[in-house]
């Protein structure tokens, strides 16, 4: 029997990308909502409760409302919003972190997909803290480049407006109050003792992310060389299809640049370790709409269904 799927928020950026990935899936039956009824509570509630698995691709408040609509106890939820990422009752949808994370997703009824910036940040720090080389009280700072689709329909419309302001031509730093919405999950999942200093930058390209975290090597425990960090990350992710650790010092292009958009359209995540004997930078390179949202949501679905983890995804 086919698994019945409903996407609440199917007309949005994340919802549309999830739908695209259902093409050619014979194992799924997609329950659709008429576009004019997409905010109709009764119709949403009917479809949520008729589904086996519902994806929530909504703003936080609407995601919480949708969860409150569940009456059928067999319904499973995959939420792409920020609403439930630090809720202990929910599985955090990052299976590569550990066997426990993977099992909780496979067996779970409530899955919260990681935030896009948080995905990159956590992919870099979680292994270092788990393996004891990064002290939990390290004063971590991070900067992150993102394409404008990360801001959803509203930001896409602003960037693609023919009459937009000249400021949109340049990369723009935001969350200047140091209150970005991913800080909570960055701290909660990694176990850092405090929230990192985090500076996201949105630039004039559609999609793709580059999340970077610099470290002083002598402040990491038992680390004598940058190669050691690269080898530790390689070992940590060696069985993972979606995470690739690049050779030490590898650069994305022959001119020595890592550009924000070169993983656009791809559903995996590449880790770069660059720098020298004193200072290194770890960078996670992926697509905010791939491993940063819709791709990760589909990966969680595949794990829940017990099919190939990469089904319908681009690797
Ligand atoms: N874009 C990205 O890269 C990422 C997004 N996310 C998260 O995914 C979620 C969706 O984001 P995104 O797709 O970018 O946002 P969009 O704004 O592109 O889409 C949101 C959709 O939800 C609809 N919607 C809003 N309120 C309601 C409601 N009460 N009932 C039903 N539908 C509603 C909107 O309707 P309408 O069409 O009328 O606007 C829209 O179609 C958010 O929580 C976001 O933070 C997570 C990771 C990355
Ligand atoms: C460019 C831009 O505005 N990006 C969004 C991130 C989108 C995202 O990942 O939001 P979720 O927390 O719902 O996952 C931001 O930084 O707030």
From TrEMBL:
Q: Which organism is it from?
A: Anaerocolumna chitinilytica
Enzyme class, broadest EC rank: oxidoreductase
* Pfam families in UniProt: Semialdhyde_dh (PF01118), Semialdhyde_dhC_1 (PF22698)
What does this protein do, in the record's words?
Catalyzes the NADPH-dependent reduction of N-acetyl-5-glutamyl phosphate to yield N-acetyl-L-glutamate 5-semialdehyde.
Superkingdom classification of source: Bacteria
What does the record give as the reaction this protein catalyses?
A: N-acetyl-L-glutamate 5-semialdehyde + phosphate + NADP(+) = N-acetyl-L-glutamyl 5-phosphate + NADPH + H(+)
Q: Which gene encodes it?
A: argC
* Enzyme Commission no: 1.2.1.38
Per the Swiss-Prot or TrEMBL record, the active site comprises 116
Tell me, in one coarse class, where this protein mainly resides.
Answer: cytoplasm
Q: Where in the cell is it found?
A: Cytoplasm
GO CC annotation, single? cytoplasm
Q: What is this protein called?
A: N-acetyl-gamma-glutamyl-phosphate reductase
What are the UniProt keywords, alphabetically?
Amino-acid biosynthesis, Arginine biosynthesis, Cytoplasm, NADP, Oxidoreductase
């Amino acid at each position: 029997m086919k698994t019945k799927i409903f996407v609440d928020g199917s007309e949005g950026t994340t919802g549309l990308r999830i739908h695209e990935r259902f093409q050619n899936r014979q194992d799924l039956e997609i329950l659709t909502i008429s576009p004019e009824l997409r905010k109709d509570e009764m119709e949403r509630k009917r479809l949520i409760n008729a589904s086996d698995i519902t994806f929530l691709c909504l703003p936080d408040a609407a995601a919480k409302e949708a969860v409150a609509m569940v009456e059928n106890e067999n319904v499973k939820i995959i939420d792409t919003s920020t609403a439930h990422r630090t809720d202990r009752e929910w599985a955090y949808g990052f299976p590569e972190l550990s066997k426990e994370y993977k099992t909780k997703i496979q067996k779970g009824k409530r899955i919260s997909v990681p935030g896009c910036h948080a995905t990159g940040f956590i992919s870099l720090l979680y292994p270092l803290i788990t393996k004891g080389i990064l002290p939990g009280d390290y004063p971590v700072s991070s900067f992150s480049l993102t394409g404008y689709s990360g801001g959803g329909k509203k930001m896409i419309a602003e960037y693609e407006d023919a009459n937009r302001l000249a400021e949109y031509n340049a990369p723009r730093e935001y969350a200047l109050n140091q209150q970005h919405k991913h800080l909570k999950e960055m701290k909660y999942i990694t176990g850092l003792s405090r929230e990192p200093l985090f500076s996201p930058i949105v630039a004039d390209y559609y999609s793709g992310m580059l999340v970077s975290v610099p470290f002083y090597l002598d402040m990491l425990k038992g680390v004598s060389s940058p190669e050691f960090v690269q080898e530790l990350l390689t070992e940590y992710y060696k069985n993972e299809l979606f995470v690739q650790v690049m050779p030490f010092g590898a650069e994305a292009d022959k001119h020595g640049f890592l550009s924000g958009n070169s993983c656009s359209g791809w559903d995996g995540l590449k880790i770069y370790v660059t720098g020298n004997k004193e200072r290194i930078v770890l960078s996670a390179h992926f697509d905010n709409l791939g491993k940063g949202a819709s791709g990760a949501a589909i990966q969680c679905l595949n794990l829940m269904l017990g099919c190939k983890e990469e089904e319908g995804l681009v690797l």
